[in-house]
């Protein structure tokens, strides 16, 4: 039964499920009144507190608010659920609503990953359908005269496969291009012409219209939202102390219930054990011998190290790591069976030990070529290049394994931004380093880009579409690199100081399919 509260000043009864504008500060520190839903009501000394979710905002912004921040004049009460009629026209016994039915159907199919968008990828044509394609720089206007083309185009070729194509000239038949065919890469010394590029939103993997497939039975960490309830929609931990940092959780995490009422949850930064008080933590530190994550150190350069942790051999640490990560990942389910997973923890070293910065996990065996299940940079280390370093390390492991990889979907909003940025910089780096032979335009295929970078070819294609690099010209697909794209890439790479050095990686992949038990 829903808790209710009555505000004495307006004599308005507010119940869980009500919607109304709530005062909050935006990024510019200005007042705004977004619509919010009341998820819970609780008594505090002398007043009521309301837990609100801002509609169309990320759940990490949910918070407890005081009554003075509520706009009661625009209060919307929850709609009553209509009874579902049966086939004979009589009302059914189970209440339902159309909105809820649609929601349940969508939620019954589980959503798949650390930033929130389901990704659909363009289909690849068969080899019989494939034809030659080219990649050119962005066109200033239509390709009007041949002499003007030859002066301005410096060609690059890449295979682009896409379901959406630009309007063709009358009488000209277009063909799909295959990922094994050569694509020319062109560079223009002029700004991009948006009309000559494919829109990124239609067929890119960032589309959120499609419903992802059900989670796999092996080791998927895809969140099953059909079991969402009012408890898991609310943050249950107020503050976490981890080493020298205090973290404000963004989402629910299933820590023991008796710890959720504490003002601060204390974690050992080396073994991640959770404790209820500072005194308990101090006593634990006298007994804890760890000064780094358990497992094998497989990479070290400067102060940055990576440790490989087997979810079966180090079960307690892996479970504690998942509990911590769940505070900042909304689209993942926490499984206490960590056996099917490997965890790669990035640390920063100082005189006191190896301090956790972030991590990613991956399945020991993935039939879908996932090289990341969950990925997270802890909030104190965000916006410092560590997220991209984690992504780069995951692909470096894929290179050693001789595979192409992709992260498990969906990614969180922050994760999606990081992957988009990494894919864009990595692919542009390849294209801009291409050298022409005998005065010919340099050529490369989508498959070659995928093999060099270990980025799955569907991600390569979607990134080219997102960057609006794919054009159709004279019966073939071309990649066009404009001056603003080149300059933007160079500026971004100048800021990217942290890179993975393959020479510092000491990693031997294992064939888990030949092992009787993980």
From TrEMBL:
Residues 153-162 have a biased composition (Polar residues). Signal peptide: none annotated. It catalyses: L-lysyl-[histone] + acetyl-CoA = N(6)-acetyl-L-lysyl-[histone] + CoA + H(+); 2-hydroxyisobutanoyl-CoA + L-lysyl-[protein] = N(6)-(2-hydroxyisobutanoyl)-L-lysyl-[protein] + CoA + H(+); (S)-lactoyl-CoA + L-lysyl-[protein] = N(6)-[(S)-lactoyl]-L-lysyl-[protein] + CoA + H(+); (2E)-butenoyl-CoA + L-lysyl-[protein] = N(6)-(2E)-butenoyl-L-lysyl-[protein] + CoA + H(+). Gene3D superfamilies: 2.30.30.140, 3.40.630.30, N-acetyl transferase-like, Winged helix-like DNA-binding domain superfamily/Winged helix DNA-binding domain. It is an enzyme of class 2 (transferase). This is Histone acetyltransferase KAT5. GO terms for cellular component: NuA4 histone acetyltransferase complex; nuclear lumen. Residues 232-509 form the MYST-type HAT domain. Its main location: nucleus. The keyword Ribosomal protein does not apply. InterPro entries: Acyl_CoA_acyltransferase, Chromo-like_dom_sf, Chromo/chromo_shadow_dom, HAT_MYST-type, MYST_HAT, Tudor-knot, WH-like_DNA-bd_sf, Zf-MYST. Residues 76-107, 144-178, 194-225 are annotated as: Disordered. It comes from Pygocentrus nattereri. SMART domains: CHROMO. It is found in: Nucleus.
């Amino acid at each position: 039964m829903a808790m209710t509260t009555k505000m004495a000043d307006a004599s308005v009864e507010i119940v869980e499920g009500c919607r109304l504008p709530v005062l909050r500060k935006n990024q510019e520190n200005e007042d705004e009144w977004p619509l919010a839903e009341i998820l819970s009501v609780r008594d505090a000394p002398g007043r009521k507190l309301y837990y609100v979710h801002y509609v169309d905002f990320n759940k990490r912004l949910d918070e407890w608010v005081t009554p003075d921040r509520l706009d009661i004049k625009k209060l919307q009460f929850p709609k009553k659920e209509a009874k579902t009629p049966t086939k004979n026209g009589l009302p059914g016994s189970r209440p339902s609503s159309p909105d809820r039915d649609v929601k349940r159907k969508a939620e019954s199919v589980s959503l798949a990953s650390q930033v929130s968008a389901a990704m659909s990828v363009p289909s690849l044509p068969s080899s019989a359908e494939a034809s030659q394609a080219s990649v050119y720089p962005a066109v200033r206007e239509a390709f009007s005269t041949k002499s003007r083309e030859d002066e301005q185009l410096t060609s690059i070729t890449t295979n682009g496969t896409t379901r959406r194509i630009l309007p063709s000239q009358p009488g000209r038949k277009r063909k799909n291009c295959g990922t094994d065919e050569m694509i020319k890469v062109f560079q223009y010394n002029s700004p991009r012409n948006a009309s000559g590029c494919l829109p990124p939103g239609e067929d890119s993997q960032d589309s959120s219209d499609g419903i992802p497939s059900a989670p796999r039975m092996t080791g998927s960490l895809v969140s099953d939202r059909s079991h969402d309830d009012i408890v898991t929609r609310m943050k249950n931990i107020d503050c976490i102390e981890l080493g020298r940092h205090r973290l404000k959780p963004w989402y629910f995490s299933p820590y023991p219930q008796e710890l959720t009422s504490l003002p601060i949850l204390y974690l050992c930064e080396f073994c991640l054990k959770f404790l209820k008080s500072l005194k308990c933590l101090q006593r634990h530190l006298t007994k804890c011998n760890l000064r780094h994550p358990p497992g094998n150190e497989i990479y070290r350069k400067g102060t940055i190290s990576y440790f490989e942790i087997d979810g079966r051999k180090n079960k307690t640490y892996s479970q504690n790591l998942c509990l911590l990560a769940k505070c900042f990942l909304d689209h993942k389910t926490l499984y206490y069976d960590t056996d099917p997973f490997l965890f790669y923890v990035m640390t920063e070293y100082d005189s006191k030990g190896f301090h956790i910065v972030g991590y990613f996990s991956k399945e020991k065996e993935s039939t879908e070529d996932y090289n990341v299940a969950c990925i997270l940079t802890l909030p104190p280390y965000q916006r410092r290049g560590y997220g991209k370093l984690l992504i780069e390390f995951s692909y470096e492991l894929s290179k050693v394994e001789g595979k192409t990889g992709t992260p498990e979907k969906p990614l969180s909003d922050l994760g999606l931004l990081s992957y988009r940025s990494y894919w864009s910089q990595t692919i542009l780096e390849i294209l801009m380093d291409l050298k022409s032979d005998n005065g010919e335009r340099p050529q490369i295929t989508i498959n070659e880009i995928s093999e060099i970078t270990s980025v799955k070819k569907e991600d390569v294609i979607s990134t080219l579409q997102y960057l609006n690099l794919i054009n159709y010209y004279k019966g073939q697909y071309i990649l066009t690199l404009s001056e603003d794209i080149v300059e933007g890439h160079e500026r971004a790479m100048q800021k990217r100081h942290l890179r993975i050095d393959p020479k510092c990686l000491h990693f031997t992949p294992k064939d888990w399919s030949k092992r009787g038990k993980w």
